[in-house]
Amino acid sequence: ISFSSFFMFYSFHKTHPSFSVTDRWQNYTSLPVNATTLQQLSQYCDEFLVHGVEVEGKRCGILQDLVVLLGNDSPIPVTYAGGVRSMDDIQLVKQLGNGRVDLTIGSALDCFGGSLPYEQVVQWHKQQQQQQQE
Questions:
Q1: β-pairing verdict for 101-104 and 47-52
Q2: Nearest-angstrom CA–CA distance, 41 and 66
Q3: What are 49-62's pLDDT values in tens digits?
Q4: How far apart are CA 114 and CA 76, in angstroms?
């Protein structure tokens, strides 16, 4: 596998903020979630996919401190997953992540049983792309 196609899955649990989680989010590791670790792991992949474990699939809001950490310290592209419930959360990820953190949304979308209209998210994304081109 070349770097151009390798993504690293990295889980984070707020109640144990210093450590990543493995094995379907059941086992805590000694691998800290911090700028140094992000730098070290970035040598082995092109992008991070980071899950806020305790909010994943719950539509209860994002882990703001994790998004800030990713926006400030990830040396490679990063996508955050977990807790999105509204357009406000989408905008908050953009703001807290300094425009450097992408976002994946699942159960909050209306097409997956949530209340967040998929079309509204698509329109927001298109507006963001237009603003970047201007």
A1: unpaired
A2: 17
A3: 888 888 888 999 99
A4: 31
